[in-house]
Amino acid sequence: MKKVSYLLLMICTLVVTGVQEMNAQKKKIEPNWKSIDSRPVPSWFEDAKFGIFIHWGPYSVPAWSPKGTYSEWYQYWLESKSLFGNGNFSGTEVYDHHVKTYGPHFSYYNFGEQFTARDFDADKWAKLFEDAGAKYMMITSKHHDGFTLWPSKTANKTWGFPWNAMEVGANRDLLKELEVAVKKTEVKFGTYYSLYEWFNPLWKKDKEKFALEHMHPQFKDLVENYKPDLIWSDGDWDMSAEKWRSPELLAWLFNESAVGDKVVINDRWGDGIRFNHGGYFTTEYQSELDGSRPWEECRGIGFSFGYNTNEDAWDYASERTLVYLLLNVVSNGGNLLLDIGPDAEGNIPPIMQDRLLAIGDWLNVNGEAIYGSRKWERACQWSEHGKKDWKPEGTHYLPADYILKQTIDPEPGYGVREIFFTKKEKDLFAIVPTWPKDTLEIRDLELHPEAEITLLGTDIKIDYEQKGSNVVLNVPYLTADEVPSKYAYTFKIKNALK
Q1: pLDDT at 27
Q2: CA nearest neighbour of 340 among 304, 286, 314, 312
Q3: Which domain holds residue 59?
Q4: Are 234 and 201 in contact (CB under 8 A)?
Q5: Given a cut of 90, is residue 7 above it in pLDDT?
Q6: Which domain CATH number covers 51?
Q7: What CA–CA distances, in Å, run from 234 to 36, 176, 195, 475?
Q8: Which residues does the UniProt record annotate as the domain Alpha-L-fucosidase C-terminal (predicted)?
Q9: For the chain, which terminal residue's Cβ has fewer other Cβ atoms within 10 angstroms, N or C?
Q10: Over pLDDT 90: what percentage of the chain?
């Protein structure tokens, strides 16, 4: 009888606990930042570590801007006769190029008709994302030019003419095709969405009215009809969150929308909100954050996010560079969102495909140290001599190859990151950008007596010694054909942490 009573008590306890957890998950979010910030970022996002960004729209037709600038800003550069980025510009480069190429009376809106997407195959894109080892993707459902990849009636209404992919150019619901294809895989489906639109007539006339009568209903249409796992808000900086009515919109998203219990959001919801409120924090062409909050670094394989025919092969980050960028971000507790820019026909440039597949090959061997990992007490081990954290001077956006200077090609007087670290519970992963000669010393680490070290991608066990407060690994000699991966190598230290 006591056993039956005990069993009933346990069942009741489990039921009550389950109900409490469900209630906690369904806790109503109030339209204020304290309440919004209390909602945790779903754990799958921190586990994912690697995502793919896609910038694709009418700007993919001209696909041109000076090196060191964003080609997806083509319309703004054209209309404002200004330019911003890495380099010295007169400001009229895009305008001059446009007039020379298309003539002085050719409108940016004509590019909508030429955005045909005739070669777009959503299933091929989705397979590439999988093969690259990405756990989520993010597509520009609408960039700052206001053109939508889905049939948005709101867009047509405020612009006064058809300005969406279903009615212009492609004559297809490109976003739905991609949603369906991606959701057949394990990759999470995300949508980038710009709050503002540079030249929308309503935006130019009344910004707050634009927010309530255009942005809010369009955002809700996007969420309800395409059910994204992630929403990457942008274009928020021209108004405060209060004028955007972002808290009210996010309260609707979490309380009433079809994805409220699972959707992940970023931090771009109004001037001053970034790095302070919302979901995960976002950096752009930067180095790293401290990892105290979920975060994500976004950058392109080339410099531009949108496809830029002005970029040459050497303007694209190398395979090695991209692997090291991933390591630096993940070791600091973040995710890397790496951008590709398809052309107007829907082809992903082969050089971008190659780079993604190279990352996938590396992750096939070393993914255990990346996916689901968390930041250790130290992100990396710097060399004992030399200054740390070299950065180039005179650039607004941090070029990708800075990471090579911090690992294998240091500037005079500067040290390097010898080892990147990640952890999973009691296991520690030490990832080195160069294959060690004979020994590898990990400073300030006292291993648990039951620790065991292996090389990921092989069945090799690594002998080691505890020498004071340091651990010295006796690394075997391996030929180039014997090392399990290119560019970086992972030593798994099982039961390293107490």
Answers
A1: 82
A2: 304
A3: 33-369
A4: no
A5: no
A6: 3.20.20.80
A7: 18, 21, 6, 47
A8: 418-494
A9: N
A10: 94
Token couple for 79: 């209309």
292 plus 156 within the same structural domain: yes
Query: Phi then psi for 449, rounded to 5 degrees?
Result: -55, -25
Domain final position from 369, 393, 426: 369
pTM comes to 0.94
Kind plus residue range of the DSSP H or E element containing 294 = none
Residue 156 sits in the same domain as residue 186 = yes
133: tokens are: 């080892």
- 384 shares a domain with 330: no
Q: What angle do CA 84, 274, 259 make, to 5 degrees?
A: 115
Rounded CA gap, 440 and 455, in Å?
13
Q: Domain count for the chain, please give it.
A: 2
Is residue 101 domain-resident? yes
Instruction: Examine residue 189 and state whether it is found in any structural domain, yes or no.
Output: yes
Q: Which has the closest alpha carbon to 327: 278, 385, 288, 276?
A: 288
Task: Say whether both 206 and 255 belong to one domain.
Answer: yes
* Amino acid type, 352: M
State what percent of residues in the chain have pLDDT above 70: 95
φ and ψ of 211, to 5 deg: -60, -45
List, for residues 241-252, the tens digit of each pLDDT value: 999 999 999 999
Under 8 Å between Cβ of 221 and 152? yes
> At what angle are helices 246-255 and 216-226 packed, to 10 degrees?
20
Same domain for 245 and 297? yes
Give domain status of residue 10, yes or no: no
Residues β-bridged to residue 492? 429, 454
| 354 & 490 share domain | no
CA separation (Å) from 349 to 68, 149, 424, 448? Answer: 19, 20, 36, 48
469 HSE (CA, 13 A, CB side)? 2
Reply yes or no on whether the pLDDT at 49 is more than 60: yes
Q: How many other C-beta atoms lie within 10 A of the C-beta of residue 208?
A: 12
Q: Is the dihedral of CA 65, 70, 71, 76 positive or negative?
A: negative
Say how far apart CA 166 and CA 172 lie, in whole Å.
4
User: What CATH number is given to the structural domain containing 392?
Assistant: 2.60.40.1180
CB under 8 Å to 2, separation ≥6 — which residues?
A: none
Q: Which two tokens stand for residue 34?
A: 């304290």
Buried b (16+ CB within 10 A) or exposed e, 381-413: bbeeeeeeebeeeeeebbbbbbbbbbbeebeee
341: tokens are 């820019």
Which helix (H) or strand (E) segment holds residue 471: the answer is: strand 470-474
Confidence of residue 17 (pLDDT cuts 50, 70, 90): very low
Question: Same structural domain for residues 136 and 259?
Answer: yes
For 136, 164, 179, the CA distances from 189, given in Å and listed in that order, are 6, 20, 7
If you ran DSSP here, which 8-state letter would residue 170 be given?
A: T
Residues 74 and 195 in one domain: yes
Instruction: Measure the CA–CA gap between 209 and 151, rounded to whole angstroms.
Output: 22
Whether 240 is covered by a domain: the verdict is yes
